[in-house]
Amino acid sequence: MMDCFFLQIYTSRQQSERMEDNGGQDIYTLSQGTHLLNEKYFPNKDYAASSNTMKSHSRKADIYSSVYPSIQVRSFSLTKTENRKSDYSFSAVTFEAKSGDLVGIMATSDEQGDDLLRALMNRRGQWGSSLKGAITYNGINVEPRQIAERAVYAGTNLDFNPDMSLKQTMLFQSHLAEPGEASRKSDTKGRIEALISDLGLSNVAATRVAELTRSEKQRLNIACQLLADPDLVLLERPTHNMDIFDTFFLVEYLRQWALRGRIVIITMHPPTFEIYNMLTRVLVLTNGRTIFSGKRKDMIPYFESLDYPCPAQKNPADYYIDLVSLDMTTPEAHVESVQRIEHLASIFTQHQPSLTDLSHPGVLPPKIWTASAPWQVIVLWIRALIFQFPYNLIEALHQVIQNVAMSVLIGVVYFGLNRNQASADDRLGLLYVILAVGIWPMIIHIIQKGMNAWPQLLDQMGQHLLSLNGTGRKKYVARMLELTYPESSRRKELGLGPTPVKS
CA-CA distance, 138 to 218, in Å (whole number)? Predict the structure, then answer.
C-alpha cells in the first residue's frame, strides 16, 4: 500500500506544473487521480459558500475562497519563570498563514517551536508564565482559548491504550470529538476508513497498538486529530524519528490536506531539500527570536541579500539553522555566533514584511464538538468492556488466578490451625496476614495498572477530550504530576505549567 502511494507521488511530481496562487505562494498541481486525500469525506472548504453575506458579492467571495481560513500572529511573546528566574521562550514572533499553507517552524531547540504551538492552543501553563501578543483568525481578533476550540493539536506523546486495535482507537477518539459542522459529521466510520487508507495504515487497522511501529503510531496520532476535520492543524514534530520515505509520504499528505482549503503548521528539524520544497511558509527561530518569517521561496533570496548565500549542493534548511545556532567550540566562536544571531534578528525586526491586510473580516469556524461529562463516562465504559476485549477478560483472569494462588499459599501455611485457646495467637496472625500481606499483590497490580493508564489520561485531558474543569482538580493533577513526572514535561503537554517553586 505504501509503495503505491510513493509511486503516485513521484509520478504526479513528474507530471505537475508550478504555478502561482492569488497570494503568490508556490504550489503543486497534481494530475487527476494521484491525490492521496480522500475528497469524498474531506472536501474542499469554501468560506465564501459558508458566509451568507458573501453570496451576493462575487469579489468578496473570491477573497474568501483564496484567503480564508487565515491566521495572523503579531508580537507573540511567552515569558516563563522557573526556579525564580524569568526568561523568554520566544519573543515578538510575528507570522501568518492562509488557506493552502503548510508552515514549517524550524528552531535551534525543540522547546521554542513546541512552546509556540502550545501557546497558540492555550496550553502554555497556568503558573509562572506570561503571554503577550495578538492573534487574528479569519480577520477576527481571538484569544488562544478560541483557537483551541476550533483547531487540533498533536504532540509527540504516543501513549495510546495498548490493548485496542488501531481502528478501535480512532473510533474511541470519534466518540469524544467530532467536526463542528453538521455536514462534516456524516458517516464517521467512512471518515475513519478513509484516513486509515490515506495514511497507509490499512494493513495494520486490526493490529493492537502495542504492536505498531513508531511511524505507524505517529500516523495514528495524526489520524485521530484529523477525524475532527479541522481548518487549522498544529503538529509537534510529526516526522521525528521517521525514516526518509515515511517522512516524505506524511509531509506530502499534510501538504495535500492544506491544499483543500486548510492550514497545517508543524514544528520540525531541518528537513531534506525535497521536503523543504513542500513547505509554503517558513518560520526560523533561535534563542526565542525570529530570524526569518515568510514564504519559503523568499528565504534564500532574503539571506542572499544579507550576504549569506547558501552554498551550492547545500541544503538551505540545514545551512541556515547552522548559521543561527550558537557555536560553543571556542570562546571566540561563541562570541561571534552570538553577535551574528543578534545582528540577523535585529535586521529582520526592522525589515519584517507587513502581514496581509484583511479588510473583509470573515467568520470563525464552528467549534469542534466534544463529548459532555456523562457521555465521556459512557464512552470510557465502552472502551473498558468492549474495545479492550478479550484483553480485559485475560487481565481479570490473571488477577483471579493471582488471588487464588495467594489464598492457597496462606491456607497451606496455616493448615491445621486449631480452634483452642492455645492457638489464639496463631488465629490473630492469620487475620494479620490476610489483611496486611494477602491483599498486597492485588494492590500492586492496581497501582501498576493505574500508572500505565496515567499517560493516556494526561494526553486525553490535554486535548480536552476528558473534562478537567475546576481549580481543585487541576491542583490535584498537578500534585500527581509532581510525584509521577518530576521533570514536568508532561505538565507542559497538559497545560499546567512548570512545577511550582517551594519557598
Answer: 30
